[in-house]
Amino acid sequence: xxxxxxxxxxxxxxxxxxxxxxxxxxxxxxxxxxxxxxxxxxxxxxxxxxxxxxxxxxxxxxxxxxxxxxxxxxxxxxxxxxxxxxxxxxxxxxxxxxxxxxxxxxxxxxxxxxxxxxxxxxxxxxxxxxxxxxxxxxxxxxxxxxxxxxxxxxxxxxxxxxxxxxxxxxxxxxxxxxxxxxxxxxxxxxxxxxxxxxxxxxxxxxxxxxxxxxxxxxxxxxxxxxxxxxxxxxxxxxxxxxxxxxxxxxxxxxxxxxxxxxxxxxxxxxxxxxxxxxxxxxxxxxxxxxxxxxxxxxxxxxxxxxxxxxxxxxxxxxxxxxxxxxxxxxxxxxxxxxxxxxxxxxxxxxxxxxxxxxxxxxxxxxxxxxxxxxxxxxxxxxxxxxxxxxxxxxxxxxxxxxxxxxxxxxxxxxxxxxxxxxxxxxxxxxxxxxxxxxxxxxxxxxxxxxxxxx
Length: 454
Fold this sequence. Notes:
The protein has 1 helix and 35 strands. The chain is an all-beta fold. The protein has one domain: Methylamine Dehydrogenase, Chain H. A hairpin with a 2-residue loop joins strand 16 (250-254) and strand 17.
C-alpha cells in the first residue's frame, strides 16, 4: 500500500468506516496504540473513581496488582493484555516523581527479575507470567524511571519485549519463548554528564520487521530485526545524528516510500526501512528527546523540549537532505510548519480531527491547527504543582491527560477548552494508557486498572 501525502491513508479510511459503523478499537498492539496515534474508535467512560480513600469505586471493571516497578504501557491483542515489570530482590523499588531537576541515578541496582505478564483483558485474571531475565541491572536508571520502561509490541502472532541492556525477548501469545537477542550493554544518559538514566524506547513491529532505536552517549544505532527469528537485517550507526534519546521510533508509509522516523538530539532523522539509508535530517532543539513521531494529515509531527528550545515540527514525508531552517527562519523545503517554542518534553501529542493537542510536563496544554500550526488556545491542567509524563489518548471526541499523581483530566475535543471531568486513579501514573472495546486500561505504579461505564 503506497499513497501520496494528498491521499487519505487506507488505514484512516478503515478507521473512519469503523467509526461510522460504531465499531470500537480492539487491538492496541504497541506504545500509543494503532500507528502510535493514541486514538481509539468507540466510546469510553468520562468519569470514574479508582481511589478507595475517596469513596466507593465507580466505573472500575477490575483492578489487578502487578508486582515490581515499570512505566511500560499495556499492549492488547484480542482478549489478552500484556505488561512487563522489573521486580527488585530488595523489595519496593524507589521512585521519585514530581517537578525537579536532580539527575542522579536511583539506588536500585540489586538483583532484579524482568517479568512478562499476560492478563485476561475482560476480567484482569493473570493467565501466565514469564521471567525473561534475572540478575543485577547492567546499567543504572533515573530516579523517575524504572528498569522496565519499554512497552511490549504484538502482531497477534508474537509478543516482543525490550529490556535494554537485558535484551530482546519474543514469545508466542501462550508464553512460549521463541527467540532472544542480546544487543549489548547501553550507556544511556545525557551527553557531557557521568549519569545513567536507563533506556525507554519501545520496540515497533511493522509487517515482519522489528525496529529498535538504541541511542546512548556513544555508539547509538538503529537496528531492524526479523520478527520471525530475531535475525539482524540491518544496523546503521547514529553517532553524530543522536547522542541520546528516549523516544520510540515511528514507521511511516507515505510519499512513495516507507521510512523509520527517529526523534533524537542533535538531529531528528528519517531512514529508508529497506536499505537503512538516511533520507533526511532536522536539527532538533530539545536536548532530551522523549516523544514519539506521529503521522497524520500527510505530515509527520515531532516535538522535543529541554535545555531551552521547545520545537514542534510538521515534516513532509517526502523530505530529503538537511531540512533544518536557516537562521531565524521557521520554514524550510521539508517542513509544512514549525513552532520554535511550543513543543513538549515528555508527552507525545495527539492529533484528533484537524487539531493537534500537545501538553508540557508541567501540564500546560496547547492546541494547534494540525495543518497550519495556528495556535487555538493554551490552558493549564491542574495547579502546576505536579508533573505530567503519561502521553494522552483520545476516544469519542474526548481527550485524557493523566498527571503523575494519578489525576486524569478529561477534556472535550475542539478549538475551545472545555473540562469535562477530573478523575482519580489512586496511585502514581507514569505510563500511557491503552484502549480496547470501550475500556481504558491504565497501568499505575502498583496495578493495571480497567475503566468502563457500568
